[in-house]
Design brief:
binds magnesium ion, Rossmann fold, single chain, binds adenosine-5'-triphosphate, 6-stranded antiparallel barrel, alpha/beta, 11-stranded mixed beta sheet, 3 domains, 23 helices
Length: 646
């Protein structure tokens, strides 16, 4: 074996050093220059490397360190050209006249790059003489002249050998062909676990690839069978596997997971709660139809209706989940017969009598009655029925939500997609109703999580909310009683408490400003896609990221719309390379075949084989409606679709 450093315990190159210092394969891009410290290292770029892409490159160097070696890894955040002749006033006069300096312009340039240190690994030998790596920190600034090389896949593999069973690759190091290793641990203890839950934020402007990233994250987390995943899907994109970069359901199933989809429009039932029903009626325009327009009167009307519904149901010994067919007629009659009830809504005699007339009118005019029933009453009531007016069987929301957290810890947990788009219902575009629903979900998770915690059990569950900006507010004012304000308060509260139950939230949203600061403050792992460049967004990003060099690299992201590349800046514990807290820059895979090649698990291979037209041996058919983008070819995608339906 070749000798490396005299007067050193490590005199021969072991497994790791032979890869790192392999002169044949290592591409040197420069040497350590001046000034350099322990977090930022100046690199003098070699002439041979000047023409290549330097910015964003991940590079490494190996230094002597306490009798052994230390490998420093980092990303080049800035590159600068200097030419002292071009700074000289006398020569600038010549440049002005001639356009350049003969023999000096270009040739006398020096390029300096700034490396932001991301990770450091001590390379030492154990008793048996085997080389090993351990996370470390740079204890002193590097000496000038040390060689700086471009990172290769083998280098990362060698340094991260001990994580090899945990690594998952979702993309490449920004601006390079090197695969970026992620760990993405589950929230429990034991193998592959972080030992605690953490909350996740995914940000970026529309089209920046957030949903695509979320799909890859789900696939990565799905490796952990003991982790439950609940995806709240406001557009039905994930539930119907549409417009995602790869066939998500198929891949999750290929990973051995049980995938369930529930649609609010036809499969979900709300908690038995006549009060909530009365409230929903307000959002559906029921009280307005009866001529009660003032919000204060409506509020009382909600209470009156609630009491009337309760009375009818009790008299009929029925429940709202199996409401009698003429519940509306009997409820209206009950209110009409109760002068006190009418008086509560309107103290003034005139208005009261108007309302009574209106009620009588609706009860006698079949056309009006039908309209009230079909437009407002039934759509609201259907959301509470075990079997709704269209014959759909509905599962209680509470049960759906808790199925993700209540399975035995040893069992494989389900992956649930909850489509709250409400497509085909009267509530399709009503964000307030969806906020109400989300609140119920958050309450269920909180209650059941708390209960499990009291019983000494920890959940291991990630709840993702796409398009969070549509439901969660940035601020809550005390007097704001809207569902969104209440939901926001609930989430602000939940992100503080549910972590200890082993429950983490993932918020996916277009802007930082749209999410309450208290929620942002609780996010541990963040991914920032293209487009947070508005002044206030950038200022907030700066607050989170801190490092100006990292921010400048973030700003160099190009709009995915023009390049079809989806870059993200990650902060927090996403990768074994992020232990120093420096952000990581990743270009997401754009072809599923790249993912399958980088992660040669049986599941990835099966999913790919189905995607490319194989039979995928034993994968149950799933409706895949994603467009061809993530596939190697359009044909491969069509084949995958057909294979699914065969
Ligand atoms: N990693 C990827 N590989 C290939 N295509 C991708 C990838 N990520 C996103 N896309 C594609 O780019 C388009 C926009 O991406 P995506 O839907 O993820 O954006 P978004 O950030 O979620 O936008 P919005 O905020 O509007 O929901 C989609 O057509 C999607 O299929
Ligand atoms: Mg999206």
């Amino acid at each position: 074996m070749p000798l490396t450093m005299d007067n050193n315990r490590v005199t021969t190159r072991g497994r790791v050093l032979s890869v790192l210092l392999d002169e044949m394969r290592a591409a040197q891009i420069g040497v350590v220059g001046s000034p350099s410290d322990t977090t930022e290292i100046t690199i003098d770029i070699l002439e041979a490397a000047e023409a290549g892409r330097i910015r964003g490159q991940m590079v490494y160097l190996v230094l002597p360190h306490d009798n052994c070696r230390i490998a420093i890894l980092g990303q080049v955040s800035r590159v600068e050209t200097q030419n002292r002749w071009h700074e000289d006033m006398a020569f600038r006069g010549i440049i002005k006249r001639q356009g350049a300096l003969p023999h000096l312009s270009g040739r006398a340039d020096v390029r300096t790059a700034t490396l932001t240190v991301q990770a450091a690994f001590t390379i030492d030998v154990d008793e048996s003489g085997e080389e090993f790596c351990a996370e470390d920190m740079l204890g002193t600034s590097p000496g000038t002249g040390a060689k700086v090389y471009a990172v290769r896949d083998e280098v990362l593999q060698a340094l991260l050998e001990k994580y090899k069973n945990e690594l998952v690759y979702l993309g490449r190091v920004f601006g390079t062909q090197v695969r970026m290793p992620f760990t993405l641990r589950h929230f429990g203890k034991g193998v592959g676990g972080a030992g605690e839950a953490y909350h996740i934020g995914v940000f970026g402007k529309t089209g920046s690839g957030k949903s695509g990233l979320a799909a890859y994250l789900l696939l990565a987390y799905a490796r952990h069978r003991n982790m439950g995943l609940l995806f709240i899907d406001p557009q039905g994109q994930f539930s119907s596997d549409r417009d995602l970069p790869f066939p998500l359901h198929l891949s999750l199933r290929a990973a051995g997971r049980d995938v369930q989809v529930y649609k609010l429009a036809s499969q979900v039932r709300l908690r038995e709660d006549a009060n909530q029903f009365a409230e929903l009626l307000r959002k559906a325009g029921f009280y307005r139809f009866l001529g009660i327009k003032n919000p204060d009167n409506q509020e009382i009307a909600v209470e009156v209706l609630y009491a009337a519904v309760r009375k009818v149901l009790t008299d009929r010994k029925a429940k709202i989940d199996a409401a009698p067919g003429n519940l509306l007629r009997e409820t209206l009659q009950t209110i009409l017969d109760d002068s006190k009830a009418l008086e509560r809504i309107y103290t003034g005699k005139e208005r009261r009598e108007q309302l009574a007339d209106r009620l009588r009118g609706v009860l006698t005019d079949e056309g009006e009655y039908q309209e009230l029933q079909e437009k407002t009453w039934q759509p609201a009531l259907d959301l509470f029925q075990k079997v709704d007016s269209k014959g759909n069987e509905r599962t209680a929301l509470w049960n759906i939500v808790t199925s993700v957290i209540n399975a035995n810890e040893q069992e494989t947990q389900p992956i649930v997609f909850l489509d709250i788009s409400g497509e085909g219902t009267a509530f399709k575009d009503d964000e307030e109703i969806k906020a109400m629903l989300l609140k119920e979900i958050a309450v269920a998770l909180d209650k059941e999580g708390g209960r499990a915690f009291e019983n000494g059990r920890r959940l291991n569950c990630l709840v993702a909310l796409d398009e969070a900006h549509r439901y969660v507010r940035a601020y809550t004012r005390g007097d704001d009683m809207s569902e969104m304000a209440q939901l926001t308060k609930k989430f602000v509260d939940a992100v503080r408490t549910t972590r200890k139950y082993g429950l983490g939230y993932m918020f996916i949203t277009q802007t930082l400003a749209s999410l309450h600061r208290e929620i942002i403050g609780q996010l541990r792992l963040n991914a920032f896609g293209y487009g947070l460049t508005m002044g206030s967004e950038l200022a907030q990003l700066e607050e989170i990221v801190g490092d100006p060099e990292a921010l400048s690299l973030y700003k160099s992201f190009v709009d995915p719309q023009s390049r079809r590349e989806y870059p993200f800046m990650f902060t927090g514990p996403a990768s074994p390379l992020s232990f120093t807290g420096m952000p990581l820059f990743v270009q997401m895979f754009t072809r599923f075949s790249d993912f399958a090649e980088a992660n040669p698990t049986a599941a990835a291979r099966t999913a790919l084989s189905v995607a490319e037209g194989g039979n995928g041996s034993g994968i149950s058919p799933v409706p895949v409606t994603a467009p061809a983008r993530g596939f190697a070819t359009e044909e491969a995608f069509q084949k995958a679709r057909n294979a699914d339906f065969d």
